[in-house]
Amino acid sequence: MARHVPPPPEAPSPQEVSLREALEERYLAYALSTIMGRALPDARDGLKPVHRRILYGMQILRLDPSSAFKKCAKIVGDVMGSFHPHGDQAIYDALVRLAQDFSSRYPLVEGQGNFGNIDGDAAAAYRYTEARMTDVARLLLEGIDEDAIDFRDNYSGDAKEPVVLPAALPNLLANGSQGIAVGMATSVPPHNLAELCDAALHLIAHPKATSDELMKFVPGPDFPTGGVIVDSRETIAEAYRTGRGGFRLRARWSVEEGARGTWAAIVTEIPYGVQKSRLMEKLAELFNDKKLPLVADMRDESAEDVRIVLEPRSRNVDPATMMESLFRASELESRIPMNMNVLVDGLVPKVVSLPEALRQWLDHRRTVLIRRSRHRLAQIERRLEMLAGMLIVFLNLDEVIRIIREEDDPKATLKAKFKLSEAQVDYILDTRLRALRRLEEMELRRENDDLVKEKAQIEKLLASEAMQWKTIAWEIGELKKKYGPKTKIGARRTSFEAPPATAAVDLEEALVEREPITVVVSDKGWVRALKGHVADLSALSFKGDDRLKTSFFAETTSKILVLATNGKIFTIEGAKLPGGRGFGEPVRMLADIDEGADVAAVFVHRPGGKRLVVSTEGRGFVAPEDEMIAGTRKGKALISVDMPAEARLIVPVEGDHVAIIGENRKLLIFALDQVPEMARGKGVRLQRYKDGGVADARVFAMKEGLGWIDAAGRNFNLPKAEIRDWIGQRAEAGRLPPKGFPKSNRFG
Asked: Quick one: which H or E segment has residue 448?
């Protein structure tokens, strides 16, 4: 007989699903899983799930700071098997980072063995290293067994894991956090714990405090590797106000003097997150590519501390200039981003400000305090119930013993006889006979009284929000004492400096050896530089019928400014001037002065100085010398003149009054504040003429009087009382000068 084979079951009919909707649904689930379960920290305890699971796993293994170390392989295995099914290497990498004092401002794990170094070397395998928790980690877990937080099922459903840790310190800001999720990222720099405590206490006292107010206590991040923040206070304040921004962090360095005037720059702290070996490789690459012309040699002399030696090309190189060139070219300066995108209340991703981040932690601490207090209150009530039953036993000891010895159901009899609860009867029946001593009764009564007092205090605490915040403030105060600025771990490591100037470093100028020179200019516009400051120029010779026009002292590092008659001004480097052995060179060889224009004046640039610029038609203004510096040979426009007028004078501003004299021999004195200050332009009328133009001008201090030098080289000086008749207003014609004024109409 043939065996009956049942027909195959019918295949389910296919269903049409929109590919777009299916992809969106699955990608959203993946994104949420990454955001919530892996990448973003909880604002309350500042931990990602992997860090929280590592600490809880170490808590289960009883790896307290005072206990013995255990192999990291044991820790990683337990965490992976019970809580974090994402691979052993991911767990171990997170564990290692928690133990590195150059990665974590307040390490949560104390490691024993090779846990890597600042050079970027990896940690040894987890079968070789050992670990236990630090005191900081214990603070994060404090109260976890007292119903302070919620637990949830682990991935397999056979154990419980904490949703968040009690977190007795603001770990999010203290240790910072970095992570990349799907469509969002987080980057919170570490801060100083003592400063955070001060800010939290201020926020408790002033719940509506702004980030600007909290910055009085938290001036900026505090990185484990130190360094110097070179951002302005306004930039830092904006970052804390919005939760987004960044910080320019530079290496800390100092100058170490050597023999015979030599020196070297010593880097002792490098920016946070920069691997020293990679930094040295980059510096060596730049050096070989000749992109560090100010550096002659570099070497790494680091042992346990960082020590990078940078030697200059010349001892005359300015240390700040050399380091500025290194900061611009290498990771000796890096930008640390801040994006405080965290899980608010453990659920909602949000970018928070400094006050919001601290408020999240403070609100969490209040929740923890209330839950721990209620847990303790329940314990006290249970204990008081037991004590009440025991006190009944002591008062009726003989009857209780008789019931236990003679009754068939002593439990029910005791409950009925003395109106005891189930728990009280069980406790009585489990009590040993030797506990029924007079001394034990006295201890129970004392314990009962103490518990009644403690219960009243807890009930008072739970009923008063003000008392709750007072308790939290006390806890924060104790935390600050433990990690205050005078402790080794609590002292601030990162300092602040003013932002550097944005101007590019002039490397050619930095390589120039600084030496004194005397600049000599002839009437026909030939220029040369004599070595040293030479006062007597009588022995100088000039070409043909040329002669001396002006001379002044300068240095090889000085900038020499040349005013042309067409109103343009040019800049010549002092080191590029021709030597003084010959007749020099025409200024036109060093600057592109237009045809038809001549040299009106040559002088040395004074940083921060000012000059009065005057044209032949008597117009002028005050110009800052720093605005006259030209970056090219073509120069830059200074005073606008209309032909046939020319730029004539550019005199230093060293006083409060202007004395100007025309070719018509009319002298006028007026206050300097009547002349506007501008970088370029035509200026205003300084003196009015019917014919001719300006001859000379001088800015002087009225209290010192007006002076001049006559043709014989004698100095004259008239006090204010004797020049009162020449004092007037700008643009007046003036009057003939005092008796004895040079016929050349020059002040000398």
From this structure: helix 438-463
Confirm or reject CATH 3.40.50.2300 for domain 606-726, answering yes or no: no
Q: What are phi and psi of 5, to 5 degrees?
A: -105, 120
**CA angle at residue 222 from 219 to 223, to 5 degrees?**
155
If phi > 0 it is left, if psi is from -120 to 50 it is alpha, else beta; for residue 87 that is left
Q: pLDDT, tens digit, for every residue of 212-223? A: 999 999 999 999
272 catalytic, yes or no? no
On the question of a cis peptide bond just before residue 516, with omega within 30 degrees of 0, the verdict is: no
Q: Retrieve residue 353's tokens.
A: 């400000």
**Which of 27, 30, 128, 155 is the catalytic position?**
128
Sorted by sequence, the CB contacts under 8 Å of residue 671 that are 6+ apart come out as: 656, 657, 658
pTM for this predicted structure: 0.71
Residue 655 DSSP SS3: coil
pLDDT of residue 503: 47
Domain limits, CATH 3.30.1360.40, in the chain:
252-331
CB atoms within 10 A of CB 1: 3
What whole-number distance in Å separates Cα of residue 237 and Cα of residue 210?
10
Cβ neighbours around 305 below 10 Å, total: 9
CA distances from 135 to 140, 499, 501, 579, 588 (A): 9, 37, 43, 71, 74
Quick one: the chain helix, strand, coil %, rounded to 5? 35, 25, 40
State pLDDT tens for residues 406-457. 888 888 888 888 888 888 888 878 777 666 665 577 888 898 999 999 999 9
Distance in angstroms (rounded) separating the CA atoms of residues 230 and 441:
69
CATH number of the domain located at residue range(s) 252-331 in this protein: 3.30.1360.40
- pLDDT in the model for residue 206: 95
